[in-house]
Each structure stands twice: as C-alpha cells, then as structure tokens.
Amino acid sequence: MVDSRPQSTSSDMIVVGNAKDSSSTTRPDAADALYPDIEPRSEDELRRKTKAIIRKVDWRLLPLLGTLSALSLIDRSNLGLATTVGMDHALHLSIGARYSIVSCIYFVPYVLFQLPSNIFLRKLGVVRWLSFLAISWGLVQLGMGFVTTWGYLALCRVLLGAFEAGFFPALAWMISTWYTRHELQKRIAGFYVFGIVIGGFSAIFAYVLSLLGGKLGIEGWAWIFIIEGIITVAFGIVAWFFLPSFPDENTFLTKEETGIVLRRIEKDRGDALPDEMSRDKLIHHLLDWKIWVIGLMYMCATLPAYAISFFVTIILRGMGWSITASLLLSAPPYIFAAVSIMFFAWLSDKYRQRAAVIAIQAVMTLVGLVLTGFVSIPGWRYAGIFLTNAGASGCVPGILAYSSNNIISHTKRSVSTAIIVSFGGIGGIFASLVFRQVDYPSYLPGIYATIGSQLLMLVLLALTTTHFWLKNKSVRTGQADELLEGQEGFFCTL
Fold first, then answer.
1. Closest C-alpha to 178, from 252, 277, 282, 116
2. How does this chain sit within the bilayer (predicted)?
3. Which residues contact 395 (CB under 8 A, 6 or more apart)?
4. Cα–Cα separations (whole angstroms), residue 209 to 82, 136, 223, 410, 461
5. b/e per residue 346-356 (b: at least 16 CB within 10 A)
6. Domain-located, residue 222
7. Which residues of the chain have pLDDT under 70?
C-alpha cells in the first residue's frame, strides 16, 4: 500500500474559494498568491470542471510531446534500419568496431549535456529552446543522408546526441509539474507509448523510403535519413507555435483554469510554484544518493530497450528472415509493448504501487531475454523479443514516475530527471558495446550483460523501496529526525 498526503477529498477535488476560504485544504495554498479570485464552486461542480481541465491539458501536452519524443527516438535509433538496407556496405561499417563506435558515440554528448540543459531550461525559455533543439537535430539527421565516409557519420551522430540531450528530460520534468503524483505514470506512459508505436512502424516506413534508392542519384539508406530529417524539422517548427510550457507559464488555459491546476498540485505535494536554483541547492540535490541509485535502475531498463531498437532487424536477419521480413516483423513487438506499457501504468496509478509493477516488468524482460538468447526455435526467440521490449520499455515510465513521486520542488525535479535520463544514455552506450558485430547472430555476450542488468535493477529497487518504507514508518511513529523532502505531511511512494 502506498502512502500519500492525507486528504479530505480525492486528488481531483479541492475546495476552491477566495484566499480567506482556503482553510479547507490540508496546507496553505501558495497558489492563492497568484490566483486569489477564483470563483467558488460546489464539490460536484469543481469535480466536473477539474476533469474537463485535465482532459484539455492531456490533449494539449501528450500528442505533440509524444510525436516529438517519437521523432527523437526514431532519429537516434534508425542506424540498424539503414544498415539493413545497405549503409554498412556503402560506408564500410562492418570493418572492425565501426558500427558500435557510430552507435555509441551519440551517447557521449547526450549524457553530458542533459543536466546543463535542464538547469537553464526556464531561463532559455521552454518553447524556444525545445523547438530549437528539434529543428537542429532534424537538420543533422537530414545531413546524415549525404555523408560519404563513416567518420562523417560519426560526427553527425555526435551532433545529434548534443541536440537531443536536453529534450527528453525536459519533457519528463514538464509533464511531472502538471499532474498529481498518482495520475502521473499514465501520462508519462501516454507520450512514451506514442513514441513506441510510431517508432515501431518506423522500420516499415524506412523500408518504404529505401525503395526510393536511385532517385536523384541517392541510395535507399540515405533517403531514410533525408526524409525523416525533413519531418523532424517540420514538427520542430510546429512546436514553436503549439508547444506548452510549465503550468505557471502556460498560455492555453484561462487564469481560473491555471489556478485550479496549481491548487491541486499544491494540495498533493506542495510544489505547484517554481523555486529558484542556486549553487548550494544544486549541490544539495546532487548529493541525494537516491537520485543516482534510481538513475542506475533507469540505465538497467534502457539497456535492453536500446538493444532492441538498435539490433532488432539485425537479430531477425540472424534468425534467417529476409531483409523485407526483418523490417516488417520488427513492428509487432512495439505494438505489444504499447498495450503492455499502458496496462501496467494504469495498474500502477490505480493501486498506487510503483516498485511492485516495475519488478513484474523486469521479470518479463528476463524471461524474454532467456527465450531470445538461449532457445533455438525462431518462433520462441521472436516471442522473447516481444517480452523483452514490453518489459524494458514499461520500466522506463515506471521508474520516472517512481522518482518523481518521491521528490519535492521544481529545482530537484530538473536535476533528478536530467541525471536519471542521462543514465539512460549510459545504457545506450552499453547496448552499443555489448551487442558487438563480431557476436552476430547470437549476441550472447550482450544477452548475458542485459540479464545481469535486470538482476541489478531488482536489487536496487528493493534497496530504495526498503529505504522509503522505513522513512514512512519513522514519520508515522514520530521517530523521524526531519520532514521527508522537507515537507510536512509528505510520505514516500512505494
């Protein structure tokens, strides 16, 4: 059972009135300072109004953010698709460790630039900065279609990693500021699944684009980068006009609607309004060991997810499928993963259980890895890809929600999401290095390493959950030396 702040009403029901009437909430409403004149409503009327506002927020945030996230995922992981249709021969990527180098070099700037980007996100301007990043990596992706050597391809991958670095952690941070703790995982999963589904069909789309080979003297693999780069640039321009910002900076809700959003966040965890980042505060956040441990868990989840995205078509080729069949068969595991992710996210939010759901999906990943790595029958190996992809991908929003539920303040969210997602980049580096071209077609060293990562994640999950349980117990029994996250009435989510 997960603990949360004691409330007299559900998380969707906050008695809203003038500032002088705010005593019905469990703590002072900081949002009253900005929105003191919200029209008083009955509980039923407020419930209906709140649901309508949340639906409005969902439709404004999730489809566009999901599309941009999908484009980011596709643009970073389409190397395997391009390699399958001829890039390895054109750029001689099969020599030595060239393919692994080109795959993993992306993650060096991707890891290094995430924290600086999140720290300065508000000063840079959410809409301006994220639109600039999307347009920039789209242009780099387009440029990859014109490279003539593997060295130039590696350079483009470095630039791609630099521009994509600040994007996903900013999205995760921004979404966490709009919703209460126990409606968050469905929303993170929602925009992430959007990316998973679109990414799943990217192999089929890439196959169609490869059929343009010879047009204008350009090879089929190059058309994949060119067309997908143009699409990303177009959506980057769309983002400039429609991308939402943080709740206190948004322009698509009325003042009253914004006030209701801020008040329910304030009631849920007490950090509706942003706090200022300082050097001391940054150091304090970075010294929280839990952020780093959860980051390691995130790395363990992304390792198999990246391995699937990088190598699924290559693994299917190793099972004996043709190029066309390998590209087409890479899509169904992503559809299954999307359904699985949303089911477990709904389960986690409904029963307020994070750790148990993450553990179930880690076990799914383990079973899938064993099937793919050690069973000789192609059908069972293919089924293993389904389970591995669903379990690993489902842990990504689960771990992000698990982390977000157990911290307070905008500055700590900016630091924690950047650190945790950067560990995902390290998972991508490991996936690129342990799934080596020389181990084709079995990739057994990569399978062993990925199995080890899932076992490590389960150990770390047990460690953090035990810590949170003991902290909650100390607060209930009055033995705690300090408030959890410095917030009265706050309990950790297990």
1. 252
2. Multi-pass membrane protein
3. 297, 301, 358, 361, 362, 365, 457
4. 10, 22, 6, 42, 42
5. eebbeeebbbe
6. yes
7. 1-41, 310-311, 437
The CA distance from 211 to 191, in Å, is 30
Q: Answer yes or no: is 174 within a domain.
A: yes
| Residue 491 maps to a domain | no
CATH number at residue 159: 1.20.1250.20
CA distance 205 to 307: 20
Burial pattern 252-286, b for ≥16 Cβ within 10 A else e, equals: ebeebbbbbbbbbbbbbbbbbbbeebeeeebeebe
Phi first, then psi, for residue 436 (nearest 5°) are -90, 150
Q: What is the pLDDT of residue 140?
A: 96
**The pair of three-digit structure tokens given for residue 459, joined into one six-digit string:** 């150990």
Domain with 125, as residue range(s), is 61-269+279-471
Q: Is residue 300 part of a domain?
A: yes
Closest to 69 in 3D by CA, of 158, 203, 177, 167: 167
How many residues comprise the chain? Answer: 494
Count of domains observed in the chain: 1
> What is d(CA 282, CA 190) in angstroms, rounded to the nearest whole number?
30
Whole-structure pTM value: 0.84
